[in-house]
Amino acid sequence: MKSENMPIQKEATEDKPKLTRSEIQRRYYERNKEKVAEKNRKRYEAKRAQVLETNKRWNARNPDKLRAAADRYKERVGKEVIAEQARNRRAANPDMARQYARDYYAANKEVLNDKARKWRSENAELMAEIKRKWRDANPEMAAESRERWKRENRALVAAYVRGRTVLVKQAFPEWADVEEMNAIYELARVLTERTGIKHHVDHIVPLKHRLVCGLHCEANLQVLTAEENLAKGNRFTAA
User: Fold this and answer.
1) pLDDT (tens digit, 9 = 90+) per residue, 51-64?
2) For 154-213, what is each residue's pLDDT tens digit?
3) Buried-most residue among 173, 174, 203, 215 (CB within 10 A)?
């Protein structure tokens, strides 16, 4: 004898939603996270080179998907956590990190240089302060860096000296007090000799500037340490 409940039971079975493959996989993963992670680790260690090559080919074919996945990961984990992970990786593998940086720069040299130039242009004062602090902390390396640049760019140095000489002559008024100017240059020399700190004679108003051009005369000269002069550069601030 058939039960009266049979049709109802059958109807309930027919109404049960059919799970998709991705949903089945998701539920399995949620129930077996550690097991799946251990299996993936063993697979990766056994076929590391093959997995890396496969990933590399997939990344090259799917740049948009790769960026989207990276964005989702950043949003889920957070920038601070990702930055900390990167620092830990670099600390654990310094040689690999340096090689990766060199390879990345070689592959993206023009883009990175354009970004760097733009940043320096938009942050000139901050850049000067960063350089000043670095020179303070590394005086010997800074001196060697300057000398190395001069050796590698002799033509530029010569052109600058010739141009600077012409510029000074053009800005040298007839009424300038040469004796007083010589005294200022002598003061810079004496301070350098007595203190052991290099001193420069600086033009308060630059001889060549987009806003104003100063004169090469005693009233426009001041003695600064080399560090102060290099930090000042060709900047001019109107009073």
Assistant:
1) 888 888 998 899 89
2) 766 666 676 677 777 778 888 888 888 888 888 988 999 999 999 988 888 888 877 788
3) 203
Residue 169 vs residue 131, higher pLDDT: 131
Contact 168/207 with Cβ under 8 angstroms?
A: yes
* Domain residue extents for the chain: 153-232
Strands (DSSP E) contained in the chain are: 199-203, 221-225
> Cβ contacts of residue 197 below 8 Å, gap of 6+?
191, 225, 226
Name the token pair of 35. Answer: 């097991």
Asked if residue 171 lies in contact with residue 207, where contact means CB atoms within 8 angstroms, the answer is yes
User: In angstroms, how far is the first alpha carbon of the chain from the final one?
Assistant: 108
Tokens for 5, please give them. Answer: 């409940």
pLDDT of residue 14: 55
Task: Supply 12's token pair.
Answer: 């309930």
Provide the β-strand partners of residue 199: 225
Q: 168-173 long-range contacts, Cβ below 8 Å, gap at least 24?
A: 168/207, 168/216, 171/207, 171/213, 171/214, 171/215, 171/216, 172/215, 172/216, 172/217, 173/215, 173/216, 173/217
- Nearest Cα to Cα of residue 201 among 175, 225, 234, 174: 225
Q: Count of CB atoms within 10 A of residue 199's CB?
A: 22
> Cα separation of 42 and 48, whole Å?
10
